[in-house]
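Quick one: structure tokens for this chain, please?
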Amino acid sequence: ATILVATDVAARGIDVTGVSHVINHECPEDEKTYVHRIGRTGRAGAKGVAVTLVDWADVTRWNLINKALDLEIPEPIETYSTSPH
């Protein structure tokens, strides 16, 4: 598999063909940054997948992005526990 790791600067400045998936390991600052990041996939009519990992501290920011872009993505469910037990 070929993997590209990039910063937000690269998301706005490079054109990489054949990207099928974008994984955001952090919630973007705003909807414009989100669109630029995921714009690396699904180009020229191709389908693509974008996954964003959202920490609980970033849920409010993610909800603003979700609403601004009308993504209709539901509130995330808790999938892990910080309990020592």
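The longest helix spans residues 59-68.
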